[in-house]
Structure formats: structure tokens, C-alpha cells
Amino acid sequence: MTRIFDNDLDTSFGTRAIHAGQRPEPLAGAIMTPVYLTSTYVHDAFGQHKGYEYARSKNPTREALERNVAALEGARHGFAFASGTACVDSMMKLFKAGDHVICGENVYGGTFRLFDRLLKNLGLCFSYVDTRDPERIAEAWMPNTVALLAETPTNPLMRLTDIAAAAEIAHGHNALLIFDNTFATPFFQRPFEFGADIVFHSTTKYLNGHSDMIGGIALVQDDALAERLQFIQNAAGAVPGPFDCWLALRGTKTLHLRMPRHDSNGRRVATFLAELVGEENVIYPGLESHPQHELAKRQMTGFGGMISVELGTRERAGEVLNRTRIFSLAESLGGVESLISHPASMTHASVPPERRAQLGITEGLIRLSCGVEDVEDLLADVQQAFS
Ligand code: P1T
Questions:
Q1: Is 332 left (phi over 0), alpha (psi -120 to 50) or beta?
Q2: H or E stretch including 139?
Q3: So what's the pLDDT on residue 11?
Q4: Can you tell me which atom of ligand 1 is nearest the CA of 156?
Q5: What is the mean pLDDT of residues 127-138?
Q6: Which of 224, 254, 346, 367 is the most exposed place for a label (fewest CB within 10 A)?
Q7: Ligand 1, from 181, 205, 348: best to mutate by most atoms within 8 Å of Cβ?
Q8: Among this protein's residues, is 205 annotated catalytic?
Q9: Which residues pair with 200 in a beta bridge?
């Protein structure tokens, strides 16, 4: 069981980011957690081992990451996976054929694809609901509903779910409330404080922060639920390698330094874009024009670096995507470097066109991930690309 160390929660966020889950390595006292490149562990004697038997079940580098991120989210347990998508897939193994999951209608395209193209065939049922409105969530409930899974803010439309309101509904039905906290990170939003049961991340994004690995992690409070997830992690085996865990763990050490910069760059770029293309075309929860700005202020302490912009047509979007010089045209987000992308043909290409149109993921929508470069350079890039 990957329990955090008892004193990890007594310190503030930045100290936890650097220290939580980590102890000096016992052989030489190396201050940095080694990359434990091993598939198995030697037993001291028949029936006696040090708590490690086989690296799919447990790896000390992975454990350090799990404990670290658990401490940042304010959770008791963490379970790392080979990708954010593998994490979602493994979480769904908590359920069985015939169970119904309510999913936020706007989620990462790969999450929708996993549900719609694979897990549906295995007998899980999904409804896609506009979780901005708690009434819609309540109406979607069925006798076999076992969980609500949503992103807040969503990818790419930056829509929010009132986590506390969703928790009240889910818990009234004895179901699990699962939040994808990838966009906000625990630095700006801690869903457990509002009643979430499982919080997960694509660690590929802000937690790693350097665009050099793929991973996922699920955090939980409840011991019995943790035991079930640990069983799945080992039994299904979608685990990350130790070096990827090490890279993510190196990333979390500076999360509290990077996030304020993503946030201040995000605010400046969003405000500037609102002047250039009109505030009604810029989607950023930190702008007063965002329809859920008040909720954003209530459940988030910052708004991060993700911005979407509606440019009207695919041609106009293409012009901007081809013109940026610092914002690189690529999928993914949350790294120190700024990226720009076209959700309809990239991250959400697996969502059928009519569904995309219904949601508002248009051909003219582009998405920016503001990195931590000097903001004047980002503004100049936006100016020359959008004007
Ligand atoms: O790529 P992977 O580590 O499997 O994570 C999937 C995932 C889960 N949740 C959210 C909110 C995500 O944004 C992602 C992955 N997203 C991208 C690759 C992207 O560019 O949006």
C-alpha cells in the first residue's frame, strides 16, 4: 500500500513538492531517489523479503512519485500508470459490465475514444452530460450509475464543473466522483477538498512539466478503494517504467515555481487576445467574460496557462497555426515551452464531427498552452500571428 509518510501533510505545498514521498536512499544516502532499474528483488530467505517482490507490483521510484503526488493533492494513496489514458482504463476496471458511468460531455478526445470505441464493447454504459449544470447531472442518474467522471476545466473548451455540487449528487447515490485535474494541477485546484473520491492526472502535462515522458496517476483517500486500485494496477499491469516516474518526480519538485508563471503568462496572453480578437472569442476561466468566472474563483486559486480561441473558420485557424514562432504547433500541453494546436484535427479528431460541432469544438477553434517563457516574447508572437 502506497501510504504517504505521516509528516508529509504537515508542511506547505512547495516543501511537499520537493520532499514528500522521498527519503535518502539507504545504501549511500543519495538525496535523489534513484531510478530503480530492476524487474525483480532478491529474497533474504524463503518466505522473507523486504516488501518488494516483482517490479510490476512495486518499484521504489514509482512509490516515491505516488507518495509525492498524493501529498500534493492531499490524498492518502497514489497509483501511477503508463499514461493518463491507461489510468482512466484501469480506473474503469473498478466497474463491471452493465454499470453506467456519467462522463462530462467535453473530455480529452482519447478519453471519449476509450469509452466509446473500447469499453462500451465490454458492456460498460456511458452517458455524456453537460456537467456545467448540476441539474443535468442529477437528471442523468440511472439505477445502475456507479460513477461520474469529468474534467474541470475541460479540454479544450475550458468549461467548469462545480465539484461540491457534483459531490452532493454523486454521494447521494452512493457513486464515485472522479475528476481529471490535469489542467488545473493540485497547485490551483484540489478536488478532494470539495468531495471528489478519485482525482487523476495525465502526468505527461504540468506535473512532469518538461514534455519528456508519458504517464498517469490516480489519487484516492479511501483505504478500501485504494486497495481495489492497487489490485488493478498490479493485476492489469499498465504501470509506468521507473525512468518515466523519475522524470515526473523531478518535474513535481518545481510545480509550485512553474504554475504561477504559467498562470501569469496565461492571464496576460488571454487579456491581450481578448483585445485582438474580441473577448467573446477567447475562452479562459480567468477572464471576467468567462461565463463561469465566479465558480473558477471559488474552486481554483489560479487559472493556469490553457487558453482556447475561436477564429471562425479552419482557414483562419490554419493561418495562425502556421504563423506562430514561439508557440510550436503540437499536441500536448503543460510543458515549459508554449504550444499551439487545433483540437478538431488533433486532440479531438476521434470525436465524431457532428458531436464536435454540437460541443463547440469547431474547425476554427485553436488551443494555446502558455509556457513559462518571458511574457513579452509570447505577446509579440501572438501579436504577429493573430493580427
Ligand atoms: O496522453 P495521456 O498521458 O494518455 O493523457 C490523456 C489525457 C487525459 N486527460 C487530459 C485532460 C488530457 O489532456 C490528456 C491528454 N491530452 C493531450 C495529449 C492533449 O494535447 O490535449
A1: left
A2: helix 134-140
A3: 87
A4: 21
A5: 98
A6: 224
A7: 205
A8: yes
A9: 180, 218
State whether the beta carbon of 292 lies less than 6 angstroms from ligand 1.
Answer: no
**Cβ neighbours of residue 288 closer than 8 Å, sequence gap 6 or more:** none
Tell me the three cell numbers of residue 51. 516488501
pLDDT digits (tens, 9 = 90+) for 152-167: 999 999 999 999 999 9
C-alpha cell of 189? 485546484
11 CB-near residues (< 8 Å, 6+ apart): 19, 20
Beta bridge partners of residue 148, listed in sequence order = 102, 177
Domains identified in the chain and CATH numbers: 13-100+134-146+163-252 (3.40.640.10), 255-386 (3.90.1150.10)
Residue 8, pLDDT score: 56
Alpha helices, DSSP H only, in 147-292?
163-172, 185-188, 223-236, 242-252, 255-277
Q: If you measure from the C-alpha of residue 185 to the centroid of ligand 1, how many angstroms do you get, rounded to a whole number?
A: 13
Is the model's pLDDT at 7 over the cut of 70?
A: no
Is residue 235 exposed (0-12), middle (13-18) or buried (19+ Cβ within 10 Å)?
exposed
Q: Is the pLDDT of residue 29 over 90?
A: yes
Residue pointed to by grid coordinates 518571458: 374
